[in-house]
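Priority: medium. Attachment 1 of 2:
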């Protein structure tokens, strides 16, 4: 019987990437944010919340994706955005459940489920009152935690192909949004 072996050659300076790669110095980006936008720093790094109905993306109707404001990691698609009436951008699904984490938040009387990126950027909260015909979840997100990448800019060379797969997934051809929901849901606590 012949044995086959897979040899993986690691060469310095070459990265084998199976997903999104953060290409910035996160520590420097956070320090810059602290100096340039203290409110964004307070929201993203200290778990703050911005005022409803006055934030940048609540009424954004453009097609594109929403990424972590610090690292650029893809989080939400405009195809999953809906008007929840809460005053914050709301989504019924995430682009990839591996890009977010949740934990219990006890800042109010009743526990809530806080959502943050895997890069530790506080995003907001997730609730079980979203569209029942989709996931039943509402990801209620602070605009200051996000950066919007318009559909027409996603393939821009400045992004070095990082968002190309998401353009192809959500915007290359019109798709039924039910087919683009993540398989593994981030479940909030009750």
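Attachment 2 of 2:
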């Amino acid at each position: 019987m012949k044995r086959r072996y897979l040899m993986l050659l690691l060469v310095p300076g070459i990265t084998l990437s199976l997903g999104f790669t953060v290409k910035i110095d996160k520590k420097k980006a956070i320090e810059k944010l602290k100096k340039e936008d203290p409110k964004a720093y307070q929201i993203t790094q200290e778990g703050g919340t911005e005022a409803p109905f006055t934030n940048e993306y609540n009424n954004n109707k453009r097609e594109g994706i929403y990424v972590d404001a610090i690292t650029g990691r893809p989080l939400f698609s405009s195809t999953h955005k809906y008007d929840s009436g809460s005053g914050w951008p709301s989504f019924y699904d995430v682009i990839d459940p591996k890009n977010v984490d949740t934990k219990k938040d006890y800042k109010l009387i009743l526990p809530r489920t806080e959502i943050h990126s895997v890069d530790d950027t506080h995003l907001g909260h997730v609730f079980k009152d979203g569209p029942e015909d989709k996931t039943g979840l509402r990801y209620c997100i602070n605009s200051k935690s996000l950066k919007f990448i318009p559909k027409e800019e996603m393939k821009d060379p400045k992004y070095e192909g990082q968002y190309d797969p998401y353009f192809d997934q959500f915007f290359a051809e019109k798709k039924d949004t039910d087919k683009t929901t993540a398989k593994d849901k981030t479940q909030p606590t009750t």
